[in-house]
């Protein structure tokens, strides 16, 4: 049985998931947006940042998201930014399919992450990710434009947002350009934590 297609992101209260410029990804606003994940024990273990860290519902959610994911899909913009920032052992530990317009041989990293570059569209990338994931889920990792393409194409089953208590004012809006006429949502759960509020929705065709 095939798994679900989902995405999971942190979002500011005014609807932004990233700054406009990839060069600002480690800036103060982005760090505040992601502040809930950095202290978590699982995050620290996965990126080999050392022992210790917080445990609790935030940590459980981070671990559950990782464990359900059998393969990921991302856009070229996210890959280009991440290629500069990820450690040698990239944090995915699964196949990752990069939607791009150029050809490139697979890029294998230590720890089980291999980036495959797909230049014949989002559906082809998803088909390959589904095959690689088996009965686990496929995560649309980002960025915002790629997530929106999959949502508007009716290819996302559910998504989770960690709603962070920070305001951006500008940047990349998660749902800028969404085809609201065809997308309906059903709330699955909402879980507050000391740092963020986690909300999960199933995606239905309207």
The structure class reads alpha/beta
CATH architecture: 3-Layer(aba) Sandwich
The helix fraction, in percent, is 25-40%
Count of helical regions: 6
What series of H and E elements makes up the topology? Answer: EEHHHEHEEEHEHEEEE
Strand content: 25-35%
Write down the CATH class.
Alpha Beta
Q: Widest sheet: strand order?
A: 5-6-4-3-7-1-8-11-10
**What does the largest sheet look like?**
9 strands, mixed
Reported by name, the CATH topology is: Dihydrofolate Reductase, subunit A
Task: Please describe the topology of this protein.
Blueprint: E1 5-12, E2 16-18, H1 28-33, H2 41-46, H3 57-68, E3 69-75, H4 76-85, E4 95-99, E5 107-108, E6 114-118, H5 122-133, E7 137-142, H6 144-152, E8 158-164, E9 172-173, E10 183-192, E11 197-205
Parallel strand pairs: 1-7, 1-8, 3-4, 3-7, 4-6
Antiparallel strand pairs: 2-9, 5-6, 8-11, 10-11
Provide a quick synopsis of the model.
The protein is of the alpha/beta class and 206 residues long. The protein contains six helices and eleven strands.
Account of the protein in words:
The structure is a single chain. This protein is α/β, with parallel strands linked by helices and 206 residues long. It has one domain (5-205): Dihydrofolate Reductase, subunit A, CATH 3.40.430.10. It has six helices and eleven strands. The chain has helices at 28-33, 41-46, 57-68, 76-85, 122-133, 144-152, and strands at residues 5-12, 16-18, 69-75, 95-99, 107-108, 114-118, 137-142, 158-164, 172-173, 183-192, 197-205. The strands form two sheets. A nine-stranded mixed beta sheet has the order 5-6-4-3-7-1-8-11-10. A two-stranded antiparallel sheet has the order 2-9. The longest helix is centred in the first third of the chain and has 12 residues, at 57-68. It is globular, with a radius of gyration of 16 Å. The two termini are 25 Å apart.
